[in-house]
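ok so dumb question maybe but i'm new to this and my supervisor (M.) told me to 'just get the structure for Ubiquitin carboxyl-terminal hydrolase' and walked off. so i did the thing. is this what she meant?? sequence i used:
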Amino acid sequence: MAPTPKRSFLPLLLLFLLSLSALFLFSLYHSSARPLHSSPSFLTQRPCNPTSQTTNDNKIFTLVIKVLAFDRLSSLSRCLRSLSGADYGGDRVNLHVYIDHLKNLGNGSVNLDEKLNESRRILDFVDGFSWKFGKKMVHYRTGNVGLQAQWLEAWWPSSDDEFAFVVEDDLEVSPLYYKFLRGLIENYYYNASNFSPWIYGASLQRPRFVPGKHGNKLQLDSDAHIFLYQLVGTWGQLLFPRPWKEFRLWYDTHKAKGIKPFLQGMVTTGWYKKMGERIWTPWFIKFIHSHGYFNLYTSFSHERALSVSHRDAGVNYGKTAGPDSYLLDKNSLDFDLLEMQPLSKLKWYDFCFRRVLPDRVVRSINELGSVLHSLQRLETVILVSIHKVPQTVTRNLLCHFERQNIQNYILVGSESNFLLDFARQGHPVIDADQFLDNMQARKFKKSSIELVKAYVVKKTLELGYNIGVMDGNTLPVSGDLFLDLIDPHYDFYFGNTFKVLLVKSSSSAKKIWVEDFIYKVAVMVESSKSKDDGNFVYIVAKLLEQMGVKNKGIDEMSFDLSIDASNRNQTSLADGKKMVFWSYEMGTDLIRKRLEELGMWVVDGDSSCMAVVCHQS
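this is what came out, is it supposed to look like this??
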């Protein structure tokens, strides 16, 4: 019998090593392809992700389409066909379809079998629908949750680089919509020079609604294709990840505490009172209002849009109303869709469609002029010091300004996030610390705020405006605070307890308010021994008295009202009062209590205005 030949293990060893190498390379590729956690700036370059898109500067992002459907098969079919007909340029885009369950009709309902069959036809259609641009996921609910839960539960971002485009099933999108959204993301999210953390997304619907009662008409420049507007657009809304997460957590807190999304002066509050939790937009609008977020919007001529609602019968419409706009496509495109202006050139609008001018921060005397020109009304500017004023008290003051349509004010305070946040929301501010650094006037440490006030008065007079000066421990009752005080025989007006100062712009006032006068103000503040002695208005009055300059006293018996503890029984405003005030020693809780008694505390638990008050521009 022939001996059995010895088996060679060399080929097996080579095969094992080759397999091990292949496994190592496969693992290395997928570990590098896994998205990294975002840095705080979320602008860090990341390696390529096979399920994501790469921007021009190698930033990675993922876009997921979220389709919200219920019982409208023809609407859903039209929506999905339009989405699949768009140009995705080879990008991988996933599709998630959320189908709400039919409502519980009861076993005795004659429509039950018909409704069940309709749901199955919808499921069969979605199951058979081909999506060749990425993964398709279908979520069929076990119970009816309604439109609010459909929106709120559709997305929780997996990273700061994941975006959601949410469409309801009666929408139809343009074949150009994705290219435009991609351009927006590249330009206004990943381009650091155009990025703002206070933009929460972009709406593709045609702007046609102002939710603030008595708001302005929608009037836009014909060549301005992109602008910013606080209102969410539910007919094709792109959502950015961080603001959406913040909203969801805010919603959870307010819902758990039983806080309703009431916002006086808004049409949407009436919707909520009528429809309750069937709709979600009043919640989001209340969040946007309290946090100061904005939404990118498009404006195309001839009522065109990249997303059109057919307004089919459903939660929002009792009967079909038809398309609200015309789809913009290649045949009707008569401009460069991807030409996008820098963020600094875009216009911003609030819920009243009132122009908002963000980031007006004065850090030098040279920057003051343009800001004063932007806010001047009735030839008088109001300078308000918020130095050492509690944040909620300052916000209450600004809410009163909005109610009274007072727009001719500028805030001055020390450098802080608090001050810059006001500027972001459209309130003009002066950064006192930077201002004095640029004036090289830091040697006057004690008188910093008063010194800034003095320089602002000088510049305002030079520009030909009157100026009123007040501190944040005062609150105007009406919008005509200084209107009827002007007397042709006087340039300077003081309250007897030195809470307010009004200086009329005149050649004589400008000759008095010069550098030497400002220096004397600073010296007197530095040498003051008490808070009252260092009061800006008191020192100005004393200097003018020494110079023999005539001034007019304000009759404070009829002008203002103290809400200090000594007047705690005062629970109403007498006729003719234009201002209430209190001492700096009063605590925030007591200030709030006293103002609530007078009906003058108008901020809510989020420290935002209880109402949106629109005034025709």
